[in-house]
Amino acid sequence: MDGFAGHVGDRARPDAELDRILLDALALQPTIGVAALDADLRVTGSRLDSECFQGLVLPTGARLTDLVRPQDAEGLAARLRRVQTTGEPLISHRQRMDDSTGVALTVSAMPLAPSGAGPAGIVLVLVNATKETRRLDLLFDAAALIGASLDVADSAQQLATALAPALGDESTVYLVRKVFAGEEPAARVSSGDLGLRCAAMAPEDRARPDDYIRTGMDLPRMPRTPAVQRFQRGEPYILPDLASISEAMEGDPALMRRLVPPKATTVMQCALLARGLILGGVSVWRTEEADPFSEDDLQLLQEVASRAALSIDNARRYTRERTASVALQRSLLPPAGTDTAAVEAAGVYLPATAGGQGAGGDWYDVIPLSSLRAALVVGDVVGHGLRATAAMGRLRTAVQALADLDLGPGDLLTHLDDLVLRIGETTEASYEDVLASTCLYAVYDPVARRLTMASAGHPPPGILRPDGSFSFAPVEPGPPLGVGGLPFEDTEMELEPGSLLVLYTDGLVEYGHDRDLAVGMDAFARELGALRPEADLQATAEGMVSGITPAGLADDVTLLLARVRATAPADLATWRVPDDPAAVTCAREMALGKLAEWGLDDLAFSTELMVSELVTNAIRYAGGPIELRLIRDVRDKVLVCEVSDPSNTQPRLRQARSTDEGGRGLFLVAQLATRWGSRYNATGKTIWAEQALAGG
After folding, report:
1. CATH number for the domain formed by residue range(s) 334-564
2. What residues pair up with 156 in beta bridges, in sequence order?
3. Where in the chain are all domains bearing CATH 3.30.565.10?
4. What is the Cα–Cα distance from 597 to 453, expressed in whole angstroms?
5. Is 258 helix (H, G, I), strand (E, B) or coil?
6. Do residues 263 and 288 make contact, with C-beta atoms less than 8 angstroms apart?
7. Is the pLDDT of residue 229 over 50?
8. Which segments of 386-529 does DSSP mark as H helices, in order?
9. Are 656 and 694 in contact (CB under 8 A)?
10. How many CB atoms lie within 10 A of CB 170?
């Protein structure tokens, strides 16, 4: 070094000798190559160590831009021309040569003294950067691939794809089984049962033995060998040959056959660590034709695996939150199938998954009402995640409570709208978007065969009639819930028995139509028109959503199918009762006669008492006209007794004192009935009471 410094500092020496000294110094460094280019960027000479540069040759007379990848030629020429014209050197430019060599160089270029008026020649100093380029390429490709999904299995497959064939011939990713469910793995595993499951393999189409581990299969119990214990401690390692691989598996041929790829002779193993927890591991395999693994390869695997572990852990956390949200959502929904005297219903719910969204606020319900009627409800709360699910639960509970009051659809939505407004006034601003909601509430009466419905900004239900004709119900939608100040109009229509009602949320009709509701409604109408009204409802509902890809679902999908029924005339008896106390006896006799005709003599005493008390109260406190009605439901084993009068005063149940002469009639009715209540109608009110038939 001192001698070289002396030569450089000796100003008496001519420049030609100094140039020779510098070139000789470069020539003594096999890892550094030198090349000279003329003004046309053609090679005039080069010195490259064949071993250090992997046999790369720069032929004399060849244009340098012809020796690199075609897509890089124009950019490299522009950089070198800039060196010629400005005289400024190009320092450490990374450049790949043509694909046949696979060599990457770090190029520094300096202009030579011009020999004439034309552009100057260039001298190049070259360093083989193939290994570093391969490392950066793998890290770049891994960063681009890994983390693009919030699905645990997809993230594992992205890791496997990034590693093979870039780092090895095959790669396999194993994850702790709890990770797939979003649960946190144990801090450390002390036994040979690591609780791992094969999550991904690459290449996926490679031929493997029949008993070789496949994606989705659990790994067999591993022996307590040093290699397994190193994995349990989170230490990466290389098993350089088949002998060491066999030793790690205690020479078990069955275990080798299941876990070692055919022709593989060496493996790198690295744990997937996140927050000090082992989420799983990754194995990268090479065959005997490939170079053995080096410590640089293992360090590169560690770097990629650490990034992938964070992505997988994020996906696991999202899976946990989404699973909790969907579980809460499903627990708040009714059973998929409902069978009542009024309707046979089946529903399906699909949570949104696209864009990392959790379950939303879509919901449906089938609520049995008095006198064999049924309410059909479908709603959509704006937003996703636990907040939307919680808001949905509050609304569904409120609808059930209001439905129990036997309110009409329009009145019920008005009360529900007031509730949403009150919630909005008492909730922090970040929750306001969740409280906006649409809702459709419909009540079907199997005796009158009439459907009454009202909509709060919700799409209209579809009606498929027994003759196969289809149309959307002519319901006039009101504003969404939470707007306030505007009424909700009731729409009534008569339905033939066997008609199919289709209630849904906009996520179903907008799917596959770029969120265009109008286009989706037209396509939905054509699909419904092709259905058979008598088809199995659950199979039909599941078939209608079977083509939906969960990964592309941006909004929840809810579908409720309900086939309406009608009460047979033979199961119904109606009488007009005069406004006269003497008519009570006649009312009892008519009721007892109908019970005898139906073979319900075991309910004669209780029904006689109910009729007597309810008719007497109607005559005493309301006046005429009075209507007595008995409804028999042989399906659900229920007998309904109704008394209607023109009064709007609701009866109150009270406990009579021992000195009171009255006040016990309604109490007796409540004791004899399984359910009882009162509801308003167009002309007054109806008091009803249900009793269970024999076997009900």
Report:
1. 3.60.40.10
2. none
3. 569-692
4. 36
5. helix
6. yes
7. yes
8. 386-403, 409-425, 432-435, 506-510, 517-529
9. no
10. 23
pLDDT at 145: 72
Q: Kindly report, as residue ranges, where domains of CATH 3.30.450.40 are found in the chain.
A: 135-323
SS3 content of the chain, % helix, strand, coil (to 5): 35, 25, 35
Q: Which residue spans of the chain are classified as CATH 3.30.450.20?
A: 31-128
Q: Coil, strand, or helix at residue 565?
A: coil
C-alpha R_g of the chain: 41
State the DSSP H helix or E strand holding residue 432, giving kind and residue range, or none if neither: helix 432-435
Domain with CATH 3.60.40.10 in the chain: 334-564
**Biggest alpha carbon–alpha carbon distance for the chain:** 144
650-694: pLDDT as tens digits: 887 766 555 544 556 788 888 899 999 999 888 899 999 999 998
Under DSSP, the state recorded for 429 is G
Query: Do residues 169 and 285 lie in contact, with contact meaning Cβ atoms separated by under 8 Å?
Result: yes
Residues found in the chain:
696
**Crossing angle between the packed helical segments 152-163 and 130-145, to the nearest 10 degrees:** 160
Q: 37 has which bridge partners?
A: 43, 122
Distance from C-alpha of 300 to C-alpha of 296, rounded to nearest angstrom: 6
| Chain position carrying tokens 């007497």 | 616
Measure the CA–CA gap between 361 and 431, rounded to whole angstroms: 13
Q: Copy the structure tokens of residue 271.
A: 């744990």
Which helix (H) or strand (E) segment is 557 a member of? strand 557-564
CATH: 3.60.20.30, 3.40.50.300, 1.10.760.10, 3.30.450.20. Which one for 31-128?
Answer: 3.30.450.20
**What kind of fold does domain 135-323 have according to CATH?**
Beta-Lactamase (3.30.450)
* For the chain, percent of residues with pLDDT exceeding 90: 45
56 to 36, 68, 250, 574, 579: CA distances (angstroms): 15, 12, 45, 103, 114
What is the residue whose two structure tokens read 């065959």? 287
- Give how far Cα 149 sits from Cα of 142, 156, 542, Å: 13, 10, 27
3-state secondary structure of 315: helix
Tokens found for residue 220: 């067999």
E strands, 369-460, where? Answer: 374-384, 437-445, 450-456
Tokens 């009158």 -> residue: 448
Nearest to 330 by CA among 358, 356, 368: 358
- Per-residue pLDDT tens digits for 607-661: 999 999 999 999 988 888 999 999 999 888 999 999 999 998 888 776 655 554 4
- Tell me if the bond preceding 203 is cis, omega within 30° of 0: yes
Q: 396: Cβ–Cβ under 8 A, 6 or more apart, which residues?
A: 332, 363, 365, 377, 379
CA dist., res. 305 & res. 472, Å (int): 55
Structure tokens at 225: 């060998």
- Residue 168's SS3 state is coil
Structure tokens at 176: 């702790």
Q: At which residue do the structure tokens 């075609």 appear?
A: 70
SS3 483: coil
Report DSSP state, residue 346. E
Superfamily of chain region 569-692 = Histidine kinase-like ATPase, C-terminal domain (3.30.565.10)
pTM beyond 0.70: no
**pLDDT tens digits, residue range 436-467?**
789 999 999 999 999 999 999 999 999 999 99
Contact 90, 81 (CB under 8 A): no
Residue 210 amino acid letter? D
| Side-chain-side CA neighbours of residue 374 (13 Å) | 21
Strand 450-456 to strand 477-478: parallel, antiparallel, or no bridges (unpaired)?
A: parallel
